[in-house]
Amino acid sequence: MEASLAFPLLVGLVAVALFFDFLNGLHDAANSIATIVSTRVLRPQYAVFWAAFFNFIAFLFFGLHVAETIGKGIVSTDVITPAVIFAALTGAIVWNILTWWLGIPSSSSHALIGGLVGAGVAKAGTGAIVWGGLSKTVAAIVLSPATGFVLALVLILVVSWIFVRQTPFAVDSTFRVAQFFSASLYSLGHGGNDAQKTMGIIAVLLYSQGMLGDTFYVPLWVVLTCQSALALGTLLGGWRIVHTMGSKITRLNPMQGFCAETGGALTLFGATWLGIPVSTTHTITGAIVGVGAARRVSAVRWGIAGNIVIAWIVTLPATAAIAALTYWASHLAG
Question: pTM of the full predicted structure?
Answer without folding.
Answer: 0.84
